[in-house]
Amino acid sequence: MPARNRRLPRDLSWPLTTSDIRAALGEQVTSAADLGFDERPHDDGTLLHVEWIPPISSNYGNGIHPTLWSSVRIRVAPLPATERAAARYALRQRALPELAAWIGAAQRAPEGWTLTWHSRSWRLVPGATAYRDDYQPYR
Questions:
Q1: What is the C-alpha separation between 129 and 94, in angstroms, rounded?
Q2: Which end of the chain has a smaller Cβ tally under 10 Å, C or N?
């Protein structure tokens, strides 16, 4: 992210860029996803988070437009700038391929699965990444 577009203090940095995510997911998936960059680190260390947005009409009253139904919302959280390089490497090697697989599985999932909210999050652990599904503990 160019410095002129930064919304973060100088000591924080996002571990992934829009280009990293596009390269991992492909242009078609990325253009259909709601991609955003958080301004504050998560207390639990989450760096990458994806949510499935179910096609439920009550969502519209809650502020989710029907064009986002049956799609995904992806969020990237910042971390200390000194940790960016190691985090970027780990996320690109492991989490982004897992993200692409998760989104593909979500798009092919049976109707019962697609009608409810689902999520997956990734954070760094020593030498690797850990993930959790639907806000369960990290593994």
A1: 7
A2: C
Task: Please state whether beta strands 79-80 and 12-13 pair in parallel, antiparallel, or not at all (unpaired).
Answer: antiparallel
Cα 84–90–93 angle (5° rounding)? 135
**Would you list the DSSP string of the chain?**
--GGG--S-TTEE-S--HHHHHHHH-HHHHHHSEEEE-SS--TT-EEEEEEEE---THHHHTT--GGGTTEEEEEE--EEGGGHHHHHHHIIIIIHHHHHHHHHHHHHS-HHHHTS-EEEEEEEETTEEEEEETTPPP-
Q: What is the reported pTM? A: 0.87
Condensed to tens digits (0 to 9), the pLDDT of residues 39-68 reads: 999 999 999 999 998 877 654 556 666 666
Residue reference for tokens 């910042």 = 78
82-139 per-position pLDDT tens digit: 999 999 999 999 999 999 999 999 989 999 998 889 999 999 999 899 999 999 999 8
